[in-house]
Amino acid sequence: MKVAVVDINGKNTGREVELSADVFAIEPNNHAVYLDVKQYLANQRQGTHKSKERAEISGSTRKIKKQKGTGTARAGSIKSGIFKGGGRMFGPRPRNYSFKLNKGVKRLARKSALTMKANDSAIVVMEDFNFDSPKTKNFTNVLKALGVENKKSLFVLGATNNNVYLSSRNLKGSDVIMNSELSTYKILNANKLVLLESSLEGIESNLSK
């Protein structure tokens, strides 16, 4: 599929680029997308949650009431989870939430996500640009020119560009990454995917394996 290339002012340059059908026009696999997003979110979890259990609570170990004749259930310890101040029953313990996902499934998920964005006309191809110095206002002007200042946007660079990255860092709804950092979650989380020309070759070569 062919996509028009725009400049830093959002104007059509008169040029077009051909997006690889093997990456941007496949049959989307929803289950692969689900697994890749699930793994990404699982990897964000610290897994440091912990609550005190019965054996970790400070308290008396004496039997709190006689065994029989009270008309209520027998109870042997004030540290039991059924009493106020007792240990939590089956509480959370530290654990690792990450899980393995095959590289082929991850590539399929990314291609499926890119295809979904292409089908929704949510991909913009932009010629490479740079700023003389890091300045948030410069990047804000680019967002306004593309009409995405009030939307979530993901800019994909082909090479490291500190001025562009630092200019976008203070903007909550915008994210700037390298083509090697592209993930299914970030693609789907953005309303508009802005691909710089220099990033296309890297994206297609990484996902065409």
From TrEMBL:
What is one Pfam family matched by this protein? Ribosomal_L4
**Which Gene Ontology molecular-function terms are recorded?**
rRNA binding; structural constituent of ribosome
Instruction: Give one GO biological process term.
Output: translation
Instruction: Give me the Gene Ontology terms describing cellular component.
Output: ribonucleoprotein complex; ribosome
Q: Where is region (Disordered) located?
A: 45-77
Q: Does the keyword Metal-binding apply?
A: no
Alphabetical keyword list: Ribonucleoprotein, Ribosomal protein, RNA-binding, rRNA-binding
Protein origin, superkingdom:
Bacteria
* Keyword Disulfide bond appears in the UniProt entry: no
Q: Which Gene3D superfamilies match?
A: 3.40.1370.10
Record-stated family: Belongs to the universal ribosomal protein uL4 family.
Summary of subunit composition and partner proteins: Part of the 50S ribosomal subunit.
Its function, per the record, reads: One of the primary rRNA binding proteins, this protein initially binds near the 5'-end of the 23S rRNA. It is important during the early stages of 50S assembly. It makes multiple contacts with different domains of the 23S rRNA in the assembled 50S subunit and ribosome. Forms part of the polypeptide exit tunnel.
Q: What is this protein called?
A: Large ribosomal subunit protein uL4
Gene, per the UniProt record: rplD
